[in-house]
Design brief:
- The complex is a heterodimer of chains A (about 290) and B (about 325).
- Chain A has about 290 residues and is mainly α.
- Chain A folds into two domains: about 30-65 and about 240-290, no CATH class; about 75-235, MetI-like (MetI-like fold, Orthogonal Bundle).
- Helices cover about 75% and strands about 5% of the residues of chain A.
- Chain A contains 13 helices and two strands, in the order αββαααααααααααα.
- Chain A has helices spanning about 5-35, 55-60, 65-95, 100-110, 115-125, 135-140, 150, 155-180, 185-190, 195-225, 230-235, 245-255, 255-280; strands at about 40, 45-50.
- In chain A, helix 3 (about 65-95) packs parallel to helix 8 (about 155-180), helix 3 (about 65-95) crosses helix 12 (about 245-255) and helix 8 crosses helix 10 (about 195-225).
- Chain A is globular.
- By secondary structure, chain B is an alpha+beta fold.
- Chain B has two domains: about 5-225, P-loop containing nucleotide triphosphate hydrolases (Rossmann fold); about 235-325, Beta Barrel (OB fold (Dihydrolipoamide Acetyltransferase, E2P)).
- Chain B has helices at about 40-50, 90-100, 105-120, 135-150, 165-185, 195-200, 220-225, 230-235, 245-250, and strands at about 5-15, 15-25, 30-35, 55-60, 65, 75-80, 155-160, 185-190, 205-210, 210-215, 240-245, 255, 260-265, 270-280, 285-290, 300, 315-320, 325.
- In chain B, the strands form four sheets. A six-stranded mixed sheet of chain B has the order 6-7-8-3-9-10, sandwiched between helices. Chain B has a five-stranded antiparallel sheet with strand order 13-17-14-15-16, with no helix packed on it.
- In chain B, helix 2 (about 90-100) packs across helix 3 and helix 2 (about 90-100) packs parallel to helix 4 (about 135-150).
- The longest helix of chain B is centred in the middle third of the chain and has 18 residues, at about 165-185.
- The chains are: A mainly alpha (about 290), B alpha+beta (about 325).
- The interface of A and B includes residues 184, 188, 190 and 192 of A.
- The structure holds adenosine-5'-diphosphate (ADP) and magnesium ion.
- Magnesium ion binds next to helix 1 of chain B.
- Magnesium ion binds near residues 42 and 159 of chain B.
Chain lengths: ~290, ~325
């Protein structure tokens, strides 16, 4: 019974959780905003007073700002494209009845359980090392000159590493979606004269649209703040400095908390722009 | 044209033989109903004809051509699935047009045929809706529409009415029968409901465990069931079976009498018993009668308003010429 009384009791009971959540969000946000209007250099004099929008202007006019935004978008876009396309294909494959299905599925999911730092280190040292890496051996086996992946093809390398981590997530969600497709629909389409490729585009893909939307939304949130993979591989060099990484450098390497905070506010704005874009493009798949 | 012949068609899933080799002829324009209890292989048989399952042995001929290895789309058959299998992301119009689109017909021809089918099925007002916004009966009609536009050699229906409520089912039953009269196309219709079979079929195929028990017109099956299974399956309420001395009097192992072929009287008759449950339907009354010396209670149809109650004594007399006789193996004795 949702009477007036029970509703106000419900509100009272929820209050602690709501307050906690708000605090969790609001305190860091307020502090970021607060510092972004200050000149604050912990090792060089500490709090040097209010400076208005100086930090904001300095952050955007810095020559590293636009490249960092671009790097962020390239990583997000690249990883999304790779994980969604490969995820759909892998899900289709895993949905086929085959021998050892259970084991194969667990193996496919496994990368998701490896910590980002660890997986990036493994990729860096075991696969991409220009002298001892597996790729180097492979290239030499075919008589080619090994590539020093992280310096010569730094962006594709990082996109590859991050995609490898997120592919299981995409595959898992898409696989469950494929399994929920009524097989009679596919049979009906078959009888209606749709060959396999048309069945994929007319029946399977539309059925997956909602799951793909979810994959894109969730991954975007996490991919915007990719950090560990860059930290342990290129350290932000070779054009891989993302917005997150730039902020980290401003705060910790240049010890300029004010400037970094202004960057943080820009990151929030960027995230929201991307979110609005995504909601516009794919969000309509979520209603209905 | 839609003449379908099955020659020694069989189907096994792994080691399990679901359909032992079976022969069947379906003539052009016939309304054939496959009827049998759940799990007897009706759907499997239909899917074999459709090409959705591969036969384990035998041949399927469609209009004289060997279609055993022909893919489903090329057999010229249209199927209506139990779940309707509509494409949820497409409008009704697109759903119905889908087979035409796949066949590469031009847009104007697609529209013409869709409009025509919509007219026949009373769907004109719903063409721009999605399947999710339709009632069960309307979805059913969209599924039929999608089948009609292809102008197939034969329609295959797999329990198309089992998801509808009782009233709608009667209505759709009539609509499908009318459609058949109008199109005069072969229809193969699968159901577990013998009432649907009796009311719609030109020819009924009774199946049990993948084996054809009898093929015939509804009245043939009603009048002369080939064995006890068919006798019990066709007709509602089901036939009463009596074994023992009473059957031996007729020179049979078992005799069967339909509830409508027994006269009930409070005072005199061949068999004496007591009334158990009585079901009053208004037009008819069904008595469950415990007859002295019979193992199982008998069902008897009496006129609408017979004044007998639970526990009353009742006398039953079967119509002699309507008694069916079966031997120990359950086969009819002519
Ligand atoms: N794909 C399959 N694999 C294994 N057994 C199946 C398969 N399809 C159907 N069967 C079995 O075949 C029998 C007949 O099934 P079905 O044709 O669906 O029966 P009905 O439609 O008459 O209820 C059932 O015992 C069922 O378990
Ligand atoms: Mg079935």
């Amino acid at each position: 019974m949702a009477t007036q009384h029970s509703r106000s009791v419900a509100r009272l009971m929820m209050a602690p959780a709501v307050v906690l959540l708000l605090g969790w969000m609001l305190v860091p946000l307020t502090m970021t905003l607060y510092f972004s209007f200050k000149k604050y250099l912990p090792l060089r004099g500490g709090d040097l007073g209010w400076v208005g929008f100086d930090n904001y202007i300095r952050f955007v006019t810095s020559s590293s700002f636009w490249p960092s935004v671009q790097a962020t978008l390239v990583i997000v876009g690249g990883v999304l494209a790779i994980t969604v396309v490969l995820g759909v294909l892998l899900a289709l494959l895993l949905d086929q009845p085959m021998w050892g299905q259970g084991v194969v599925r667990i193996l496919v999911i496994a990368p998701f359980f490896v910590m980002p730092t660890v997986s990036a280190l493994v990729w860096k040292n075991m696969f991409m090392d220009p002298v001892n890496g597996l790729f180097a051996h492979l290239w030499r086996f075919f008589g080619a000159e090994p590539i020093s992946w992280l310096s010569e093809a730094s962006m594709p390398s990082i996109v590859m590493i991050v995609s490898w981590q997120w592919l299981p997530f995409a595959t898992l969600i898409l696989l469950t979606a494929i399994q929920s497709l009524d097989s009679e629909q596919l049979e009906a389409a078959e009888m209606d004269g749709a060959p396999p490729l048309k069945r994929f585009f007319f029946i399977i893909l539309p059925h997956l649209s909602r799951a793909i939307t979810i994959v894109i939304l969730i991954q975007t949130i996490f991919l915007l703040s990719v950090f560990a993979e860059i930290f342990v591989t290129t350290g932000g060099a070779f054009g891989t400095r993302t917005l997150t990484y730039l902020i980290y450098q401003r705060v910790l390497e240049s010890q300029n908390v004010g400037l970094g905070s202004a960057g943080g506010v820009y990151a929030i704005i960027l995230a929201n722009i991307v979110a609005i874009f995504l909601m516009r493009i794919v969000g309509k798949n979520l209603d209905a | 044209m839609g003449r379908i012949v099955l020659e020694k068609v069989s189907k096994s899933f792994g080691d399990v033989e679901v359909i032992p080799p079976l022969d069947l002829e379906i003539n052009d324009g016939e309304f054939v109903v496959f009827v049998g209890p759940s799990g007897c292989g009706k759907s499997t048989l239909l899917r074999l004809i459709a090409g959705l399952e591969d036969v384990s042995g035998g041949r399927i001929l469609i209009d004289g051509q060997d279609a055993t290895a022909v893919p489903p789309a090329k057999r010229g058959l249209a199927m209506v699935f139990q779940s309707y299998a509509l494409y949820p992301h497409m409008t009704v119009r697109k759903n119905i047009a889908f087979p035409l689109r796949m066949a590469g017909l031009d847009k104007a021809e697609q529209d013409r045929r869709v409009e025509q089918a919509a007219e026949v099925l009373n769907l004109t007002d719903y063409l721009d809706r999605r399947p999710g916004q339709l009632s069960g009966g309307q979805r059913q009609r969209v599924a039929i529409g999608r089948a009609i536009v292809r102008e197939p050699a034969a329609f295959l229906f797999d329990e198309p009415l089992s998801n509808l409520d009782a009233a709608l089912r009667v209505g759709m039953r009539l609509e499908i029968s009318e459609l058949h009269n109008r199109l005069e196309t072969t229809m193969i219709y699968v159901t577990h409901d013998q009432v649907e079979a009796m009311t719609m079929a030109d020819k009924i195929v009774v199946l049990q465990a993948g084996v054809i028990e009898q093929v015939g017109s509804p009245l043939e099956l009603y009048r002369a069931p080939r064995n006890k299974f068919v006798a019990g399956f066709i007709g509602s309420p089901r036939m009463n079976f009596i074994e023992g001395p009473e059957a031996e009097k007729h020179g049979a192992h078992t005799i069967g009498v339909r509830p409508e072929h027994i006269a009930a009287s409070p005072s005199e008759g061949l068999w004496k018993g007591t009334v158990g449950v009585s079901e009053h339907l208004g037009s008819d009354t069904f008595f469950h009668v415990h007859v002295d010396g019979f193992a199982e209670p008998m069902t008897v149809r009496a006129g609408g308003e017979v004044g007998l109650r639970h526990g009353d004594t009742i006398h039953l007399t079967p119509e002699e010429d309507k008694i069916h006789r079966f031997d120990a193996a359950g086969l009819r004795i002519a």
